[in-house]
Recover the amino acids of this structure.
């Protein structure tokens, strides 16, 4: 099977193509995407930490100097929003912003949220079971992380329905070659979400609370404070990155469990013992983020292949997480896997800041379904995959109880 991220059959099961890519070499040129594909765990892990590569090049070069065409002026609201978030910043700006955000988004913040997250998950699962089942994606997997982020940011309950559509529209731009309709939706969502957060930040400046926005406003060090745009971009990134990863890990994970009934049976029998390793294994087995793109800022070699400045690199998380050079029996689901250095949260300076929160949400969601007082859920029909490859997940997951 060829690497073809626009082919539905490839998106449904990219793992045979990954095996072929790993056999072909450490860096494989893809004419269709104009990228060097990197499929091996050791290389992906190393390049995530290599400062000769960057999420952006604009901190060092102009578009023209880097041989790139500037995006259309109409797309500017999206690029301003995205470019000021931690995911796309590079040092020294990244180090400054991450340090300040970390002052507000602390382990204690996540710890304090834990009882609320567990209660939210239990309430969603209880309502789902009372209905006799349905679409697990829309009834449980999506509402939980959106509600958690809204609680974290201090978004009033009446406004929370706005968040998911904004996030979905913005995340459309992270796919390969988004079309103009996708860009237009992302720009509109960027403008609306930014305006909303601008108003919320203004309210918190006047009347601080116990929420993350208030903490971001208060965070400062000897180098100053976060700008308003940096705060807005941080809040949007927390929603986009956090909710997409958690939603898709939840539904992809349940689909993997249904296909591995013996593993599911063991998990139901021993949830307290197995849940922690199970969550990491489900993230490894079918990672929600299949590809992470980087630019070559200074010439770098991968094996015998020299990648020049200006080349684009596609780090294939989905392939790295199934690499037999790093994982024993990589294509088998093993919920008790202890040695599991999966790359689903990234690595290096862009390691996911929200990883502890994502783990908390996943533990709460799967744990609520595995409660012995909750009837087991059963798959009603085989699901279909969404069109997106970079952020990869199911259209729906229909189950009954």
């Amino acid at each position: 099977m060829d690497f073809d991220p626009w082919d539905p059959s490839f998106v449904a099961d990219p793992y045979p193509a990954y095996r072929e890519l790993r056999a072909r070499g450490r860096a494989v040129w893809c004419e269709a995407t104009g990228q060097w594909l990197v499929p091996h765990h050791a290389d992906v892990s190393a390049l995530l930490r290599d400062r000769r590569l960057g999420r952006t090049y604009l901190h060092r070069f102009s578009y023209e100097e880097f041989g790139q065409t500037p995006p259309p002026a109409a797309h500017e609201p999206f690029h301003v929003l995205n470019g000021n978030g931690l995911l796309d910043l590079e040092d020294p700006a990244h180090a400054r912003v991450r340090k300040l955000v970390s002052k507000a988004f602390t382990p204690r913040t996540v710890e304090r949220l834990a009882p609320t997250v567990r209660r939210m998950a239990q309430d969603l699962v209880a309502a789902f079971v009372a209905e006799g089942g349905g679409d697990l994606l829309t009834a449980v997997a999506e509402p939980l992380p959106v509600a958690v982020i809204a609680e974290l940011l201090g978004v009033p309950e009446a406004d929370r329905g706005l968040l998911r559509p904004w996030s979905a529209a913005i995340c459309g731009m992270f796919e390969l070659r988004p079309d103009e309709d996708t860009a237009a939706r992302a720009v509109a969502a960027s403008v609306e979400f930014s305006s909303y957060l601008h108003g919320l930040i203004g309210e918190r400046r006047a009347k601080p609370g116990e929420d993350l926005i208030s903490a971001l406003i208060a965070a400062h060090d000897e180098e100053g404070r976060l700008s308003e745009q940096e705060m807005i971009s941080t809040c949007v990134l927390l929603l986009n990155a956090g909710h997409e990863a958690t939603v898709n890990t939840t539904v992809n994970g349940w689909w993997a469990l249904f296909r591995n009934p013996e593993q599911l049976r063991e998990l139901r029998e021993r949830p307290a013992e197995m849940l922690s390793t199970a969550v990491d294994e489900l993230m490894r087995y079918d990672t929600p983020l299949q590809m992470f793109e980087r630019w070559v800022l200074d010439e770098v070699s991968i094996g015998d292949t020299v990648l020049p400045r200006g080349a684009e690199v596609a780090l294939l998380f989905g392939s790295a997480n199934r690499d037999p050079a790093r994982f024993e029996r990589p294509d088998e689901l093993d919920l008790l896997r202890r040695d599991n250095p999966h790359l689903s949260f990234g690595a290096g300076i862009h390691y996911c800041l929200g990883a502890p929160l994502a783990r908390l949400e996943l533990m709460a969601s799967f744990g609520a379904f595995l409660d012995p007082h909750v009837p087991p859920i059963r798959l009603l029909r085989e699901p279909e995959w969404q069109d997106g490859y970079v952020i990869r997940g199911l259209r729906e997951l229909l189950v009954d109880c």
